[in-house]
Amino acid sequence: MEYAADVGFVEVLNFKLREAAERGDVFVPYKAAVVPRPSTSVPPLTLVVEGERDVYIIRCIALLLHMRGDAVRELNVVAASGLMGLAPVAAAAARINPGPIVVIADGFAGAPALPNVEQLEGYDHEIIVVEPWIDRWLGVTSIDLQASRQVQIAERVREINVDALAATDKEFGRLVKLLTS
């Protein structure tokens, strides 16, 4: 309703009714659909994660941010097939992608630093280590989600209170900031 003061309540209501009729979606935030993207070209953000499930979790988080009205950067999310592949895949991605690289690794309760991290020297990169697993952001353990289907993961992501989790989890807060900056 914050945009109603600027453009008028009737325009915002008409927009929402049109979206509901055309797309069947009554929860499209006005600002996400109407506010133009910045005119400066921002290179895509490349995220390198351990596996395909992590790719899906990151994409669901980005969609959640978009659905609540945040402007989310264009993303390239790549699975590295495990912890040992994170740095080499991120280095390869940095050579072919113009934007920054974010590596997201499971922490495994104090495991040693990311293997082969020296391969990232000289590239614009950030490393986010989630203790103990990325699944913690969903309020479950990795074991709970091991056999979970994508629908169950998406439901868990929709339940995330982004602001509360970002305030209590520094690494999640960093991820949200990177996805929306």
Structure, explained:
Strands 2-1-3-4 form a 4-stranded parallel sheet, with helices on both faces. Strand 1 (45-49), helix 4 and strand 2 (75-79) form a beta-alpha-beta unit. It is of the alpha/beta class. The chain folds into 2 domains: 1-35, no CATH class; 40-180, Dna Topoisomerase Vi A Subunit, Chain: A, domain 2, CATH 3.40.1360. The protein contains 9 helices and 4 strands.
Instruction: Supply the number of structural domains.
Output: 2
Strand order of the largest sheet: 2-1-3-4
Q: What oligomeric state do these chains adopt?
A: single chain
Q: What is the CATH domain class of the largest domain?
A: Alpha Beta
Question: How many strand segments?
Answer: 4
* Main beta-sheet strand count, sense and barrel state: 4 strands, parallel
Termini separation? 23 Å
List the SSEs and their pairings.
Elements: H1 4-7, H2 9-23, H3 30-34, E1 45-49, H4 52-67, E2 75-79, H5 86-96, E3 101-106, E4 125-130, H6 142-145, H7 150-158, H8 162-168, H9 170-180
Parallel strand pairs: 1-2, 1-3, 3-4
Helix pairs in contact: 4-7, 8-9
Main features:
four-stranded parallel beta sheet, 45% helix, 4 strands, 181 residues, alpha/beta, Dna Topoisomerase Vi A Subunit, Chain: A, domain 2
Q: Short summary of the structure?
A:
By secondary structure, this protein is of the alpha/beta class.
